[in-house]
Design a protein that fits this description.
The chain is of the alpha+beta class. The protein folds into three domains: 7-105, Zinc/RING finger domain, C3HC4 (zinc finger) (Herpes Virus-1); 110-156; 159-197. Helix content is 35%, strand content 12%. The chain contains six helices and nine strands, in the order E-E-H-E-H-E-E-H-E-E-H-E-E-H-H. The chain has a three-stranded antiparallel beta sheet with strand order 2-1-3. The chain starts with 29 loop residues before the first strand and ends in a 13-residue tail after the last helix. The protein binds zinc ion (5 copies). One zinc ion (ZN) is lined by residues 35, 37, 54, 56-57, 59. A zinc finger (TRAF-type) spans 102-155.
Length: 209
C-alpha cells in the first residue's frame, strides 16, 4: 500500500491538517513521530530508512519511531469520498472506510472476463453482455443435447433441428435395414414355395434366384 489518499477522491477539499507533507495526499494510517509531526505510516517509514530527521522540522527522530493516531484515522475514515470508478460512471458517494467494500461489488469496476483465454477487462455491469458475445465463450448446450457450442455455433445451434436430423438419419438406416430383411424373407419364401411345388413347365420358371 502506497502513500496517502488522492485529493481527487474527496467530495469536499479536506482540511490542510489532514494532509501528509511527504506525499501531499490525505494521510493513510496516520502516525506521529517524536517531534509531534504526523505522516502516513508508509511515507515516514520509507523516509526514515534513508534519514533520521523529521522531514518537516529537521529534528532528530528519537525513541520509538511512531505512535498510531487512532482518533485521527477514524476522522479520516469518515470523510465523504467519490467512488474511484466515477470516471466510468459510478455516481455513488460514501465514507472513506467503505471504499474497499464498495469496490468489491461496484457495477462500474473493471473485472477480467471469466471465459478461459479471454484477455478482456470489462465493467461489471457489462459483463453479462460481454461474456455472451465473447469469442472465447464455450459451453455444452444446456438443452440436453450436450453439443459443445462456441460463440459462432450458439447463434445457429438448434437443438430440436439437430435432434430431428439425427432421428431422420437413424430412421433412414432402419428403413434400409428393414427393406433388406424384407427382400431376404421374400427370397426365402419363394425358394420354399418352389421346393414344395411340383415341377412346372420350363417356360414358367425362366427367372433365376
Ligand atoms: Zn503520505
Ligand atoms: Zn517534526
Ligand atoms: Zn462505484
Ligand atoms: Zn471475454
Ligand atoms: Zn442443443
Amino acid at each position: 500500500m502506497g502513500g496517502g489518499y488522492d485529493l481527487e477522491l474527496f467530495t469536499k477539499t479536506p482540511d490542510y491538517d489532514l494532509l501528509c507533507s511527504i506525499c501531499h495526499g490525505v494521510m493513510r494510517c496516520p502516525v506521529m513521530i517524536s517531534c509531534g509531526h504526523i505522516f502516513c505510516r508508509n511515507c515516514i517509514m520509507q523516509w526514515l530508512k534513508r534519514r533520521c530527521t523529521c522531514p518537516c522540522c529537521r529534528t532528530k527522530v528519537r525513541g520509538k519511531p511512531y505512535v498510531l493516531m487512532h482518533k485521527l484515522k477514524r476522522k479520516i475514515n469518515r470523510l465523504d469520498v467519490k467512488c474511484p470508478n466515477e470516471q466510468h460512471g459510478c455516481p455513488v458517494h460514501f465514507a472513506l472506510v467503505h471504499c474497499q467494500e464498495h469496490a468489491e461489488y461496484c457495477a462500474f469496476g473493471a473485472v477480467p472476463c471469466s471465459n478461459e483465454g479471454c484477455p478482456a477487462e470489462v465493467l461489471r455491469k457489462d459483463m453479462y453482455d460481454h461474456s455472451h458475445n465473447c469469442r472465447y465463450w464455450r459451453q455444452n448446450c444446456h438443452m440436453g443435447c450436450e453439443t459443445l457450442l462456441d460463440s459462432e455455433t450458439r447463434q445457429t445451434h438448434n437443438c430440436y433441428q439437430e435432434l430431428k436430423e439425427d432421428y431422420a438419419r437413424q430412421l433412414h438406416k432402419l428403413q434400409q435395414k428393414a427393406q433388406r430383411m424384407e427382400t431376404i424373407c421374400s427370397q426365402i419364401s419363394r425358394q420354399l414355395q418352389m421346393m414344395n411345388e411340383p415341377a412346372q413347365p420350363a417356360a414358367d420358371t425362366g427367372e433365376t434366384i
